[in-house]
């Protein structure tokens, strides 16, 4: 990879009905202390005035960036396809995607490039982040150092093995990676319209790219009623979980034991059943948990745990 000390970085803002917050997001990109940046905005057929807001902002601020582009489409295609359009339109050596309601700190790009200059360019970088409300007030924080994924796992294979079983190990909000990495795994999987991050980062781990945590809060995740991950008041699970289990049943099952693979398939069937039969409602929570606990892998772990307790008790 090119070792340019002043590489072009592509900040790609992904929007869909983001009119309420997109100006803050764009201003956070503009405020970066690192200068060699292009800005791509990729919109997924917003029905509000997101596109008009972005057009006006770009007219006034395009000179801040090496290049700017606003991409629009005639129909909604899902998050992975929107991300792919943005990345393919960009030219930067390094890629930073951000949702049109979140914020990045002004030093995020410079902090990441500083780390790359020390460690090399074969790593996925991410950081801790804060949680903000609709008024941009801090209401919480996420410290990833406390997670096993960043605290204990020593190489990409260990991270891959854990990510096969647990989604959401690398936060897309703060993730920073090279175009070479993106090309290596073929971009985002467009079969899962709400699930851009999990398949992508899992495959990067599988290809040998190790994720490193910078222990600073360098971005803000906005918790609002319009965010993709906002759960409905009456739902047992968000549709994103159904897509997660579907991906595990299709892909992850090929890299785990047969009993774990059966567990992935069982999870996907249970969630699909609840979704198709309109049972994804909190009044069916008890039924959901009863069926969920019949997962063959969970049953095996329960009985294995019981047998281990008996074994160790007999040793005392």
UniProtKB/TrEMBL annotation:
PANTHER family: GLYCOSYLTRANSFERASE, UDP-GLCNAC:BETAGAL BETA-1,3-N-ACETYLGLUCOSAMINYLTRANSFERASE-LIKE PROTEIN 1. It holds the Pfam family Glycos_transf_2. This is Glycosyltransferase 2-like domain-containing protein. It comes from Cecembia lonarensis (strain CCUG 58316 / KCTC 22772 / LW9). Residues 10-181 form the Glycosyltransferase 2-like domain. It comes from the Bacteria. GO terms for molecular function: hexosyltransferase activity.
């Amino acid at each position: 990879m090119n070792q340019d000390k002043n590489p072009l970085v592509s900040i790609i803002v992904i929007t869909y009905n983001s009119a309420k917050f997109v100006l803050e997001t764009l201003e956070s990109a503009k405020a970066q202390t690192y200068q060699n940046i292009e800005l791509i905005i990729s919109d997924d057929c917003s029905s509000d005035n997101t596109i008009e807001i972005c057009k006006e902002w770009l007219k006034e601020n395009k000179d801040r960036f090496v290049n700017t582009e606003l991409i629009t489409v005639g129909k909604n295609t899902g998050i992975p396809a929107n991300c792919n359009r943005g990345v393919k339109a960009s030219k930067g050596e390094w890629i930073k995607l951000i949702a049109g309601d979140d914020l990045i700190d002004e030093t995020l790009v410079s902090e990441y490039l500083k780390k790359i200059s020390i460690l090399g360019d074969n790593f996925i970088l991410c950081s801790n982040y804060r949680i903000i409300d609709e008024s941009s007030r801090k209401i919480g924080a996420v410290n990833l150092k406390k997670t096993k994924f960043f605290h204990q796992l020593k190489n990409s294979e260990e991270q891959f093995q854990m990510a096969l079983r647990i989604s959401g190990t690398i936060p897309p909000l703060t993730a920073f990676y090279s175009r070479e990495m993106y090309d290596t795994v073929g971009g985002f999987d467009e079969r899962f319209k709400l699930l851009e991050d999990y398949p992508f980062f899992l495959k990067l781990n599988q290809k040998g790219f190790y994720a490193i945590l910078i222990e600073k809060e360098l971005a803000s995740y906005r918790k609002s009623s319009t965010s993709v991950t906002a759960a409905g008041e009456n739902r047992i699970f968000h549709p994103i979980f159904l897509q997660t289990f579907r991906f595990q049943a299709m892909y992850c099952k090929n890299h785990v034991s047969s009993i774990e693979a059966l567990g992935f398939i069982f999870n996907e069937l249970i969630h699909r059943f609840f979704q198709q039969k309109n049972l994804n409602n909190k009044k069916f929570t008890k039924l959901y948990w009863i069926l969920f606990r019949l997962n063959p892998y969970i049953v095996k772990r329960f009985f294995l745990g019981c047998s281990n307790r008996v074994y160790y008790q007999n040793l005392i």
